[in-house]
Amino acid sequence: MKPTVATVAALPETDVAALRNYELSTRAEILALLRALRDKRALVTAYVGQGLEFLVTSVISVRPEFEELTFGLGRDASLNRRLLSAKSIVFVATLDQVKLQFSAERAELIEADGESAFRVRIPDVLLRLQRRNFFRVHAPLARPLVCRAPSPSRTGEFVDLTVLDISCGGFGVWVDPGRLDAYPGLVLENCTLDLPEVATLELTVEVRHVSDIRRVGRPRKRLGCRFLNADGPTNTLLQRYVNRAERESLIPG
To answer: pTM higher than 0.90, yes or no?
Structure first.
């Protein structure tokens, strides 16, 4: 089964522990949502490699009698191989403007209706997010976003946090580890974020997650951050930027 509708790839939520109230663990509810994804041929994004790589697919079948959820493979053979060898995969989809997310430990190559596909175990827990501020968008490559944060260890100096993705509640950034000794719980006050054609915001940012970005060149750290004490006008401006970025991403290049 091939996806039929183009859409923006929804990004996975990394701070899952803070979203426990949005978890579904009732099997009947989970199966109903998975079948709805199948029946509506909704796009599902499968993230591998710490969320740095992904392929867009769709659900082929839901077979609870075999604890089996089947998806179509992507067109990139090398990415398919990495997915099949991954120890963890995060799946994200949007169904009737509701964001769904679940994970699987591994994928297995199979044949489905004469085509190569992959299957995973039906999840025991599924995240269902209806609040709009959870929608995250990629920062545009043509106009990179940079958040300037005062260095916590060097008075008078600033650290550039390059934004990878952003929502109304926070953002993912990368940073040179030599410039910032980041750790979960670190709070950066008086940060400045310029949102083109919207506004320049002053933010307080809390680091929630830290991971390595393994690419050729200098080592980098990826930080998952949330915005602290963002008031109503700030949230409105963030939402305006997210909406604009979403619309622009839907315009064919």
So the answer is: no
